[in-house]
Specification:
Length: 271
Amino acid sequence: MKIFISADIEGVAGATDITETDKSHADYAVYSEQMTAEVAAACEGALSAGATEIVIKDAHWTGRNILASRLPRQARLIRGWTQDPFSMMAGLDEHFSAALMIGYHSRAGSDASPLAHTITGRVTYARINGRYASEFLINAYTAGWRGVPVVFLSGDDGVCQDAASFLPDITIVATMEGVGGATISIHPDLAVERIRAGVESALKGDIARGRVAMPGHFTVEVRYRGHTLARAASFFPGAHLIEPHTVGFEADDYFEVLRFFMFGISMNSGG
Ligand SMILES: [Zn+2]
């Protein structure tokens, strides 16, 4: 059993301020360790459930946050950015049995996390077929496009609720909830414990229930904070300006949506 993990940092236990997610800041070290511990716990849970191979995409900012020496030896780590439309899911192909998401966070437009955003802070909100898009939703469709079920997510309570409303059978572990500019977090070691147990039980269950149904057509809307970015993105082939801050795009093939996100939102700066 081959398992894929996409890992972010804004949703690991306690992460509250952007300085804690920024490599160049002294506050970062604790959260890089927590991200590593939560990812390692997911690996251990997967191995207990019978995983033989694990590929992890470090999907935050520089793509270089996880401390590789603390992972089990069955894991391979993708660091940096591949510069293709798969972005936070780079490395996933149809040979994986299941995908897991660790450290995920609330979407742009949500008040459920002080760190809420979708791909970058330059986006006010994004919608896919009318549904407000978190990075979870964007990446779940990527997994669906590859035919790989998504069976587990950990992160703040807002993204957990988003995930559960989209994929009712996904196993979720909420690390904290956001209130205004604050977070109320469970103990970091408890988060690690729950992630390990949650991943093990998710992978021992009926993995096929995490299958993402792919719509036959995608209608995407991205609202930018600045009208200048919207104007630039509106020149992407097939995109159009809905109003000065909002760009629309449509496609049948989800890969075309990912291509639009790559050039229209600069996905590879994100996570
Ligand atoms: Zn991130």
